[in-house]
Amino acid sequence: MSQSHAPPDSSKYYLPHGTPWPIIGSVALFTTMLGVAAWLNEWFGPEMFALGLTLLAVMFVGWFRTVIGENQQGVYNLDVDRSFRMGMIWFIFSEVMFFAAFFGALFYSRTLSVPWIGGEGVKVFDKIFLWQNYDAAWPTNGPAHLGPRADGSFEVIPAFGVPALNTAILLTSGITVTIAHHALKAGNRTVLKVFLALTFLLGFLFVSLQAKEYGEAYMHKGLQLSTGIYGSTFFMLTGFHGLHVTIGAIMLTIIWLRTLRGHFTPTRHFGFEAVAWYWHFVDVVWLGLFIFVYWI
Amino acid sequence: MAYSATAESHDHHDHRPSGIWRWLSTTNHKDIGTLYLIFAGVMFFVGGSMAMVIRLELFKPGMQFVDPAFFNSMTTVHALAMIFGGVMPAWVGLANWMIPLQVGAPDMALPRMNNFSFWLLPFAFTLLLIGFFVPGGAPAGGWTLYPPLVLQGGDSFPLAVFAIHLMGASSIMGAINVIVTIMNMRAPGMTLLRMPLFVWTWLITAYLLIAVMPVLAGAVTMLLTDHFFGTSFFSASGGGDPVMFQHVFWFFGHPEVYILILPAFGVVSEVIPTFSRKPLFGYEAMVYATASIAFLSFIVWAHHMFTVGMPLAGELFFMLSTMLIAIPTGVKVFNWSATMWKGSLTFEPPMLFCLAFLFLFTIGGFSGLMLAIAPADFQYQDTYFVVAHFHYVLVPGSIFTIIAAVYYWLPKWTGHMYNMTLAKWHFWLSTIFVNVLFFPQHFLGLAGMPRRIPDYATQFADWNMVSSIGGFGFGLSQLLFPYIVIKCIRGGEKAAARVWEGAHGLEWELPSPTPYHTWETPPSIALIHKGGEHWTEDGDDA
Ligand SMILES: [Cu+2]
Questions:
Q1: Residue A9 — pLDDT band, cuts 50, 70, 90?
Q2: Is it true that the peptide bond before A139 is cis, omega within 30 degrees of 0?
Q3: Superfamily assignment of B17-187 in CATH?
Q4: Distance from CA of A188 to the nearest CA of B (A)
C-alpha cells in the first residue's frame, strides 16, 4: 500500500503504487454473484450473497478512505482532478446507456410489439389465429392477462398523485444541491451544510414515498413485477431508478459528513461535484420516467 | 491535457512488491497490460480447445464423440470465451501497454481502477466456467442468448448472466481509463491529430464500449428477471416480444464487432508504414473513416435479424445502412494498399500477419456485404456461410493483428528479439490452415448446412472433413506462439531501441526493454515531431 514519505509535490501527476482494494472488490463481486446464483438456483440460502455484500461494503469504505485521505494530503493536482472529472462523466454516460436499454424495451413494446400482438397491419393473423379477444391498449398485461388477480385486471398508479409530488421533491433537491454548490464556491459553509442536508433528506423522502407506492401497487392494485409487460417495464425502470436515488442519497450523506469535517474548498471539490452530477442524472432519468411511464 | 511530471509515492520508484502480491495489487500499466495479455492468451487456448471439440465432432457425419447438449455448450462457450476472454482483453492489454508509451504519458490516468478492470475478468470467467459443473451443464443456447431458448437452460443460466455483468463492468472501466488517458494525459505537443492511429482507433473503440456494454447488461438483466422474477419482457403472453431481445442484444452486438476490429485497424496502420518505410497514406482520412464506421455501427443492428419478420421499411433501412459501412472500410483498405505503393517493403513477421489481414479481412468484408443484402440473407441466415464470414473477420482479422501487434512490440517489451524463422513458420502455417479451415465453410453454407448442429447430411461430409483438418492444423500451429513468446521473454539477441528501422513513434524513443516507469517527464516537442511522420500538413498545426 502506498504511503507518502516526502511532502506531496502537487506539481506532479500522482500515481499510486499498489492497492489491495480492486482485488478485494473482485473477490467481493464474485462472492456476491455466485451467492445470488446459488440462491436463485436453490443450492443454498442467501448466506454467500450476504457475505459478498459485506465484503463489497468493506471494499468501498476502504477504497474511498484511501482516496479521500490522499486528497486531504493534497497529492492530487489539477491534472488528477481532471482525470477524475472525465472518469465520472463517462461513468454517468454508461449509466445513461443502461437506462436506455430499459426505455428501449418500454418504447418497443408500447409502439411495436403490443400493437402487433393485437393484430396491427400485416400482423393481423395474430388477431385471427392467436388472440381473438385481446385488444392491445396501453397499459396492458398481455393477452394472457398476467398478474396476481384472478380476473387478470390491474390498476396503474396515477401520475398526478404521489409521482407528481415525487417529481416536485426531486426537482427541488436539484435546486437545493445547486444552492449548496454555489455556497461552497462562495465559501459560505453554513448554507452549504444546510442545503446539502436538505438535498439528501429530500432524496430519502423520495425513496420512502416510492416504497409506499410500491406497497400500494403490490397489495391493492394488482400491479406487480409479474403483471405482464406493463408491470415488467414499470418496476424495472422505477426500481433501477429508485436504487440509483438510494445510492445517490447515500453519497450525498457521505459528502455532507465530509463538509462537517471541513473537507472541500471553494476551488477544489471534485467529490462534491461528482455526487451533484450524479444527482442531476437521477433527476433527469426521473423526468423521463414521469413522462413516459406514469403520464402518457 | 498536459502534465508536467509524475509524483511517486515511494522514494526509490522502481520499488515493487515481489511474488503474487505484486500482480494482485499492481497499478502499473505495463504490469496490467501483461496480465491482460496472459489472460487473453490462456482464454484463446481455452476457447480454441472448445473449437477443436467442435471440429472433431464435425469431422464425419453422425454422432461420434460428444452428446448434442455438450456440443451446444461448446459452440456457446467457445464464442463467449473468444470474444470476451480472448480478443477484447488482448486489445485492452495492448492499449494498456502501448497508449501511455505512444502519447507520452507516465501511466494510465486511473491506475487503481485499471487493476480492478483486469482482476474482474478471471472471476467473471470462473463464474462462466463453473457452469460446466452444475446441473444442466454450461450455457448451450448460443452466445447470442436468444430467449426463449436461453431461459430453458439449467443452473448455469444465472452464472452466465452474472459473468456477463462482470465482463461488462470490466470493459466499461477499461474504456473509461483509455478515454481519460488519451484526453488528459497526452504529453504537451501531442495534439489529437498527431496521435498514432492505434491510439485513435482505441479512443473510438472505448467510446463504443461505454455506449453498448451497459445495453448488454440491461438485456441480460431482463433475461434474468424473465427467468426468475416473472417479468414478461420477452414473452408474448404478457405483451412482450422475444424479438425485442434480439433488437436490444444487437444494438450492443453490432458495435461490439467494431470493438473487436477497430484496434486491429490501428495496428495495421502502424505496421504497414513501418515495413513499407513510408508514412501512412491518408492519415486524417483514416481517422474520419474510423469515426464514420463507429457512427454507422449504431444504426445497422437489425441486419442480424432479416428473417425474424421485420416491417419492410426496417429491412430496407438496415440493408442500406449496412452497405454504407463498405465505404469507410474501403477507404481504409485503399489507404493501406496505397501506403505500400512504391514503398521499400520487407516481410518481417508483423508485416506478414498484417498482409494476411489485408487480404483475408477483405474476403470477410465482402461476404459481409453479401449477407447485408436482405433477400439473399434469407438464404444465408443461420448457415455456415455466416460462420465463415465472421470467422474471416475475427481470426485473420482481429486475431492475426493481435499476433502482429505482439510480434511488433514484443522486442520493445522484453528487450530481446524473437526467433524470426519460427515466427515466419507460425505465419505460413496459420495463414494456410486458416483458409483450409474457413474457406470451405462458405461452400457448406451456400449449400445449406445450418450452424450450431453436431450432425449433418452426408452431402456436407467432404468439406467438413477438409475444414476439420484445417482446424486441427490451425490449432496445432498456434502452439508455436506461446513457445516463441516465452523464449523471447527468457532471452535472445538484444533488441535496439528502434527495433524496426522504419518505425516511428514515441515508443521507439524509449530503451528496449522499456523501464518499469516511462515518460515520468514528458517527451520534448522535438521528440514528438520526430515520431510524427504520419502527419499531414494540416495535422502539423492541429
Ligand atoms: Cu452486425
A1: low
A2: yes
A3: Cytochrome c oxidase-like, subunit I domain (1.20.210.10)
A4: 32
Residue A129: CATH number of its domain: 1.20.120.80
Question: Considering A21, A46, A76, which residue would you say is the last residue of a domain?
Answer: A76
pLDDT in tens, A92-110: 999 999 999 999 999 999 9
Of residues A3, A41, A146, nearest to B237 (C-beta): A146
Q: Ligand 1 centre and the CA of B301: distance in Å?
A: 5
Q: How far apart are CA A284 and CA B424, in angstroms?
A: 57
Q: Residue A185 corresponds to which cell in the numbers above?
A: 464556491
Residues 6 or more apart in contact with residue B64 via CB below 8 angstroms: B56, B57
Q: Would you name the residues of B annotated as active-site residues? A: 78, 107, 143, 170-171, 254, 256, 258, 269, 303-304, 329, 332, 451
* Cβ within 8 Å, pair A22-B115: yes
pLDDT at residue A133 in the model: 86
B307 touches chain A (CB under 8 A): no
Among A76, A98, A113, the domain boundary falls at A76
Chains A, B: CB contacts under 8 A, how many? Answer: 262
Residues A96 and A141 occupy one common structural domain = yes
d(CA B378, CA B372): 10
Q: Is residue A246 part of a domain?
A: yes
The residues pairing with A214 across neighbouring beta strands, listed in sequence order, are none
Q: Is B521 an interface residue toward A (CB < 8 Å)? A: no
**What pLDDT is stored for residue B8 in this prediction?**
46
Same domain? For A169 and A22 the reply is: no
| Record: contact A29-B123, CB cut-off 8 A | yes
Assigned C-alpha cell, B48: 480454441
Pair (A37, A112) in one structural domain: no
Q: Which of B239, B96, B297 is nearest to A108 (CA)?
A: B239
- B377, burial (CB in 10 Å: exposed 0-12, middle 13-18, buried 19+): buried
What is the count of structural domains for chain A? 2
Question: What's the B354 CA to ligand 1 centre distance in angstroms?
Answer: 23
Q: DSSP E strands: which ranges in B18-123? A: none
Q: Does B302 touch chain A (CB under 8 A)?
A: no
Closest partner CB to A29 (pick from B13, B120, B183)? B120
Residue A30 placed within a domain:
yes
CA dihedral B429, B85, A85, A268 (to 10 degrees): -110
The 10s digit of each residue's pLDDT in B152-207 is 989 999 999 999 999 999 999 999 999 999 999 999 999 999 999 999 999 999 99
First CA to last CA distance, chain A: 54
ipTM metric: 0.94
Indicate if A59 and A149 belong to the same structural domain: no
Asked if the structure places residue A145 within a domain, the reply is: yes
CA-to-CA distance for B201 and B294, rounded, in angstroms? 10
Residues A110 and A138: beta-carbon distance below 8 Å: yes
Q: Are residues A36 and A91 in the same domain?
A: no
Query: What's the pLDDT tens digit per position in A205-231?
Result: 999 999 999 999 999 999 999 999 999
pLDDT band at A122 (very low <50, low <70, confident <90, very high): confident
- Residue B17 pLDDT: 72
Asked whether the predicted pLDDT for residue A188 surpasses 90, the reply is yes
